[in-house]
Amino acid sequence: MSANAVSQAAAPLEPPVPTKKPVKTTGLHIGEAGPGCAKVDPILVVDNVRRTFGGLTAVDVAHVEVPRGAITALIGPNGAGKTTLFNLLTGFDKPDSGKWTFDGRSLAGVPAYKVARMGQIRTFQLTKALGLLTVMDNMLLGAKGQTGENMFRALMPFLWRNQEEENRAKALDLLTRFKLDTKKNDYAASLSGGQRKLLEMARALMSDPTLVMLDEPMAGVNPALTQSLLDHILNLKSQGMTVLFVEHDMHMVRHIADWVIVMAEGKVVAEGDPHEVMQNPAVIDAYLGQHHDEDIGIDPDAETEHVSAIKELLDDER
Amino acid sequence: MDWGAIFSNAAVELISPTTAAYALAALGLAVHFGYTGLLNFGQAGFMALGAYGYAISILTFGFPVWGAFLVGVGASVIFALILGIPTLRLRADYLAIVTIAAAEIVRLLFTTNTYASVTGSANGLSGYKNEFAALNPLADGTYGFGPFTNNAYDTWLRIVAWSIVILAALLVWQIMRSPWGRVIKGIREDEDAVRALGKNVYAYKMQSLIFGGVLGTIAGMIFALPRAVVPSNYQTTLTFFIYAILLLGGAATVLGPIIGSMIFWVLLSFFSGFVARAVEAGWLPFMTSIQGGQLRFILVGVAIMLIVIFRPQGIFGNKKELAFVR
């Protein structure tokens, strides 16, 4: 799989936006940047969403707003509830209580497929390419409002043939941008892990979404392909889409995110500009534990090692 | 040993109405299992509803053929809804458990003595063929050639049965290459991914369950026309034979179930003729003729195992698909 990905990344990249210095969107919030602060133009507003699994409270978000037209990163240590929140917001899981709106419309209790039709499209942490469908069929499945997807109209090809051709042209265009056009007739199962991530993202774009939610887009992707994936995410913004993504790679978060929301133990503990939020004591606490700088007498070396590692990360400005 | 009789008896099965019925039921199962990934183990139940729906409508209510046909189809749509509403939201294996149980419930309901006046209980129903025979445009006499020579009723039945199979095959072929079929195949691969793309997966699975079930129901009617309706014909073994045919031909194919059914029945007939005569001729001295009757299923089982081992994608399946089986 990696051989494929390397040869693909080795091809000259021609990103439409500058690769090195992404244009950051600023002035997104009103007042002090902090957990649950108001945004100038929020696309997604979450209120008191709570989800428990038995005795464990996985998500307990009092209030959070996602700014429109920007790239927002959702970060947090493992088990912070990021993916659970994603599942709740997209209708794949039901919260115990709470409400949230997308573009002013309430999404509480709306099933996942209707959420997607409203223009809020997600991808998955474990890529869900439809293996035994061709890459082209994967793409065509993403298109919205297809006449031929009605069981009875499906039997009359003249009703949907033109629409199918339009979708096919659009899919081919997207595949070319994602450098998958040569693979269009292959089974999606034959793609490498990184190519599947690209395919999943391209497929999500077939429906012209307004909000793209990416769950760990970089997980398991070969570093050579990372840059091209980053460029694609930046392109989404330049095309007017809003991006919300979960990520563990802090370099990537700092590189492309305009806004960062930090979760820990199910709660939003900090929000802000990617550079500032990393200095926030709440964030350092979330990642390292509250007593990380106190000498508790057990292996102080290991403790300092962690602290210096995160400091290095914090200092590593581009 | 009369090889001629063995081969000609086997050849009869090639176009027999029973072969057509199994082909159609397998085609319905291809829609369920091969294309949508629904584990329906209750195809025998759908067939029983078709057979009983048709026979009871004619015998008890005196419906015309088309009315009886619609009653059977309607019963299977309701059956599919009853099965699907609680289970299609759950994981695939729950549907398997529910369908296998529901098909048995249907069979036992038709067997119970309480409704004997309508269902005929364990003896089943017969005497419902006149209405269908009355529609026969063919004059009396024999038609066909060689082993395929039949009287007017049997020829008429074969023409109708195979016309329905061909129509159904064209229907499945067309619908599976449409965007609807694409969604259905996507659901087989990963229903959450399809849901995330804005498709109402539950509705599609229900449509598929009803569509495949109706094909099974029509198969049940064809199955009933050359014989009597007997509840013991609709045991779970019937479903497993249909699965064997489906895997033999290729699960996600249109021609697979049809050719698979032909091969299955020709092989079954050939082995049964061969074993019976071999026992008679004293080639198998350790075996009685009753034991010989069971041996054919063993031989068919071995033949199917060999095909599945050496051609696991089935006869018409795409070898490439198996390179990526998870």
UniProtKB/TrEMBL annotation, chain B:
<feature type="transmembrane region" description="Helical">
    <location>
        <begin position="156"/>
        <end position="176"/>
    </location>
</feature>
<feature type="transmembrane region" description="Helical">
    <location>
        <begin position="6"/>
        <end position="31"/>
    </location>
</feature>
<feature type="transmembrane region" description="Helical">
    <location>
        <begin position="209"/>
        <end position="230"/>
    </location>
</feature>
<dbReference type="GO" id="GO:0015658">
    <property type="term" value="F:branched-chain amino acid transmembrane transporter activity"/>
</dbReference>
<dbReference type="InterPro" id="IPR001851">
    <property type="entry name" value="ABC_transp_permease"/>
</dbReference>
<feature type="transmembrane region" description="Helical">
    <location>
        <begin position="65"/>
        <end position="85"/>
    </location>
</feature>
<feature type="transmembrane region" description="Helical">
    <location>
        <begin position="38"/>
        <end position="59"/>
    </location>
</feature>
<dbReference type="InterPro" id="IPR043428">
    <property type="entry name" value="LivM-like"/>
</dbReference>
<dbReference type="GO" id="GO:0005886">
    <property type="term" value="C:plasma membrane"/>
</dbReference>
<feature type="transmembrane region" description="Helical">
    <location>
        <begin position="236"/>
        <end position="255"/>
    </location>
</feature>
<keyword id="KW-1003">Cell membrane</keyword>
<dbReference type="Pfam" id="PF02653">
    <property type="entry name" value="BPD_transp_2"/>
</dbReference>
<keyword id="KW-0812">Transmembrane</keyword>
<keyword id="KW-1133">Transmembrane helix</keyword>
<feature type="transmembrane region" description="Helical">
    <location>
        <begin position="92"/>
        <end position="110"/>
    </location>
</feature>
<feature type="transmembrane region" description="Helical">
    <location>
        <begin position="291"/>
        <end position="310"/>
    </location>
</feature>
<protein>
    <submittedName>
        <fullName>Branched-chain amino acid ABC transporter permease</fullName>
    </submittedName>
</protein>
<keyword id="KW-0472">Membrane</keyword>
